[in-house]
Amino acid sequence: MFEDIGNLMHGFAVVVQPHNLLLMVVGIVLGVIVGVLPGLGGANGVAILLPLTFSMSPTSAIIMLSCIYWGALFGGAITSILFNIPGEPWSVATTFDGYPMAQQGKAGEALTAAFTSSFVGALFAVIMITLVAPLVASFALRFGPAEIFSVYFLAFCSFVGLSKEPPFKTIAAMMIGFALGAVGLDQMTGQLRLTFGSETLIGGFDFLIAVIGLFGIGEILLTMEEGLSFRGKSAKIDLKVVLKTWKELPKYWMLSLRSCLIGCWMGISPAGATPASFMSYGIAKRISKRGKNFGKGEIEGVVAPETAAHAAGTAALLPMLALGVPGSPTAAVLLGGLLIWGLQPGPLLFVEQTDFVWGLIASMYMGNIVGLIVVLTCVPLFAAILRIPFSVIAPIILVLCAIGAYTVHNNTFDVVMMLVFGVVGYFMKKANYPLAPLVLAIVLGDKAEVSLRQALLGSQGNLGVFFSNGLVGSVMTLGLIALFWPIIQNGWARIRGSSPEARAAE
Amino acid sequence: MSVTKSLFTIGTAALASGLIMLSAAPAKAWEPSHPIEIIVPAGTGGGADQMARTMQGIITKHNLTKQPVVVVNKSGGAGGEGFLDVKNSKGNDHKLIITLSNLFTTPLATGIPFSWKDMTPVAMMALDEFILWVNADKPYKTTKDFVAAIKAAPDNTFKMGGTGSKQEDQIITVALQKATGKKMIYIPQSGGGAVAVQLVGGHVDSTVNNPIEAVAHWRAGKLRPLCVFDSKKLDYNEKIQGDLTWNSIPTCKSEGLDVEYLMLRGYFMPPGVSKEAVAYYVEMFKKVRETPEWKKLMSDGAFNTTFMVGDEYAKWVAENEKIHESLMKEAGFLASKSN
Amino acid sequence: MSDTAHETGGAGPSHRGVEAGVAVVVGAFGIITVLGSLKVGIGWADDGPMAGFFPFYIGLAIIIASVVNLYNVLAAPNDGSVFATWEQIYKVLTVVVPTAVYVTIIPFVGIYVASALLIGLFMLWLGKYKPQAAIPVAIGVPIFFFITFERWFLVPLPKGPLEQMLGLAVG
Question: Do B229 and B285 touch, CB atoms closer than 8 A?
């Protein structure tokens, strides 16, 4: 343990060398750009800069590349909040309250809350990595198909039953999401399904195309209908908004802590940041006193998913280094980088390459601090984008959406699909169908189906596999509790003698 | 107005540089005139992706071509998306595709219409080996122990993890079933790394991971290699775990399991490309093979470093296609005509 | 959103009619899903559920949910509210139609030329900007994207005859 702290201090000494600090700033700025432009994504950014890093020492190289990763994580929140366009699956939940805040002229507050929460989540996860790295790796190994399915199950359960829309519309929306997610190749049988012989459908519907269309384009159409303006443009924006928001944030320490824990747990399990952000949002909405205002621009609704997503994104680097399994495409490219430098990810990396590992961990601390400073100073700049007149910014957003949709599969058909999703999103929103369950089902549906079928295959159809050990059993039970939470709440209220109506009236 | 003016200047400058690029095209040998695109018909982080990106790095670092190299993943439909793209880019001298076994298995299993004959073969860079792995905590020290345990248990007792469905890993599994006479439960995962971790975690009983996917866990003493699905032992003698080297792993055939399988890691181009362009890329790949980074990748992953070009390569591919067709037909993996 | 329509009080298609239409379209989507699932098999094979097993029940759920939704729409009394006024629909179409043209021409003229046209048209027509303001933006933004994507990040986007002519296209 003490040896580890010594190693970490040595790591800091390496990281704070001026040229490494400079690489950090460069990496963060590039990462933010990459995160803001939909379709570039962290994976591309890292892949493209990888060759540039061959002339550096492995430690410098990984510092720069991991900073691109942090920058992209920070940057993802920007388009979610300003334009309702999440660039990454784990930013989807951020749009639910972030975008309404921006519409109310509180873009600065939303961005500050998002960036600060990201930082808190990442920092918490790094501290955890520093303290319990070896334990974490062995915990990750306990996740087989049944355990992974239980995590998805929990994510769905903590999210359904949340919307105010009529239940059958919610069911229809979610099932549409599942159906869209099922199009393409079935991983379990290697068979194409629901493609109807079309060559353009073999890749299936990527969540990004659906989300860019439903949220991004759909929102432009709604704005258009209501007259040509972004409603947030009158907001006063300067750096004071950062300090003002910071004063408010400590109130939510409990929420942050809970989101950090959810995030770290999801990051270590192979499920990753996306279920973490949805789960954290869902649980926050259930527990918060202001839960009813979620979705209308509640700052807690930004803090919860951002904290969890970043804690998960950071914690996920640990299984990657210790087991060699990347948690995201970006991590996969980073992993490729390690191999080129002759570093072999795996259980022995921590023993054989202490310099590198502790340098990386030190750069996680420093990179997040540098990143927070960089993005916070830019808050007024980002928020000022909303002042650009709608008839100028709208076509540029449309172009960005098209680029984003194209780069997912390098396919122009996807751009057409994006517009179709946009029109569908407009109609669904106006007809009072909730879009969030649809997106959740596209993002996690096929993964959940695959792990369910893997688990059943392994147990030869025996459902008992989902309660076969303490870990999977307790996660499934948590999921069931979350699913029946409203009923449990009612029952509890009755036992205590007050009717739910009376409680609601309080 | 000054903005407009400067934009015009940029426009003319771009036009001028375009003209220079056109006129600078040399008459003597073919050279790429704009960025070279490498398609990976698989997701990021897999074996093919790693190889393509490593090559991108090597080519950039050693300045082996004047134009930048871009790696693009088109993994939809078990890679069918990438192959269709190349098939439809007739005459594009700046597009390459790296293949894995899905060159053969995807059209057969899914009915997506393409074949290697729709493309121009360039070069075989290497062949990837397959090894039978078990968890080191299990009592199976040799292939014979493991096969005996399988034979002693009823059908569907042993779980085999693998990448994808109806692809190379499952083909080997079917061959194993034939050799042992017992059915195994085949559990498909999304990537080779995940497969190895499922074995370390004890969620499956065995895997047929490529060496590079599992070597880290072997070095850490978590996994044990039983045999290699090749006709001869691997030719790498660096110590990996204790005194063991890749060379210490016996062939499966010598252990009584008569199964052989190697996977192509090679390049193709779209149909109708110029001979000069193909020759250019073959030369470039030869230079790649001479670099220390490439040699390191080969020994880390215990690759079979056979290099083939031209007719020899085309002949090898044709033979392998036949082998896959009969293997998949036997296993019942061919696509039904309904989808 | 329908409140806005109420307030402006203009004429337009009824909310009820459009909602019924959406329910029918959703139901049709469910039917397509069920048919697609039947094609690949919805039973259990010896290696677990077949490819269409889950999509089949998902499709059924969509059909049932939209029947309920349709019933709810038709059973409720017609409150006479409009989905959107004709004027609002016209405004929405002024975005949808140019964007539809935009996505259709991308494969032919490339994304950069198409984007320049879209931005220019939008600013001139909807924003009522003067050409000397609209044209620089319309040309500048695609050039900025070109440099960012093609040159810095080496991400190839669709290109057309203009880029071919300038020798900038990959293929």
Answer: no
Instruction: Give the Å distances, CA to CA, from A43 to A35, A305, A438, A477.
Output: 10, 21, 25, 36
Q: What percent of chain A has pLDDT over 90?
A: 25
Six-digit token string for B109: 């299993």
Comparing B32-128+263-331 with B131-255, is the CATH topology the same?
A: yes
Cα first-last separation, chain A: 52
Task: For B265, list phi and psi in degrees, rounded to 5.
Answer: -120, 95
Which strand (E) or helix (H) includes residue A259? helix A253-268
User: CA of A352: which chain B residue's CA is closest?
Assistant: B220
> Looking at the DSSP assignment, which residues form a beta bridge with residue B269?
B120
Rounded Cα–Cα distance for residues C36 and A183 (Å)? 10
Kindly provide the ipTM of the predicted complex, given to two decimals: 0.89
The model's confidence at residue A20, banded by pLDDT at 50, 70 and 90, is: confident
Nearest-Cα distance to chain B for A411, in Å, is 9
CA distances from B149 to B67, B140, B180, B206, B251 (A): 56, 8, 10, 12, 19
Q: Is domain B32-128+263-331 given the CATH code 2.60.40.420 in the classification?
A: no
This prediction has a pTM of: 0.84
Judge contact between B214 and B241, C-beta under 8 A: no
Interface test with C, best of B1, B4, B165, B185 (most C CBs within 10 A): B4
Distance in angstroms (rounded) separating the CA atoms of residues B306 and B289: 11
pLDDT class of B14 with cuts at 50, 70, 90: very low
In 3-state terms, what secondary structure has residue B150? helix
What's chain A's length in residues? 506
pLDDT at A504 over 60: no
The top-scoring range by mean pLDDT among A181-190, A312-321, B81-90 is B81-90
Rg (CA), chain B: 23
CA C90 – CA C58 distance, rounded (Å): 36
Q: Return the number of CB contacts < 8 Å for A and B.
A: 164
Taking contacts as CB-CB distances below 8 angstroms, the residues of chain C near A426 are 92
Quote the tokens at residue A134: 């070896």
Q: What is the pLDDT of residue B16?
A: 42
Q: Inform me whether the C-beta atom of residue B1 falls under 8 Å from chain C C-beta atoms.
A: yes
**What's domain B131-255's architecture?**
3-Layer(aba) Sandwich (3.40)
**Across chain C, how many H-helices and E-strands are there?**
6, 2
Q: Which residues on neighbouring strands pair with residue A191, listed in sequence order? A: A186
Boundaries of every domain in chain C:
2-75, 86-166
Question: Which strand (E) or helix (H) includes residue C154?
Answer: none
Neighboring chains of C (3 or more beta-carbon pairs < 8 A): A, B
Domains of chain B: which residue ranges? 32-128+263-331, 131-255
Helices A92-103, A300-315: inter-axial angle, 10-degree rounding: 150
Output the pLDDT for position A43: 67
| Residues forming beta bridges with residue B206, ordered by sequence position | B134, B160
The predicted structure's pLDDT at residue A306: 95
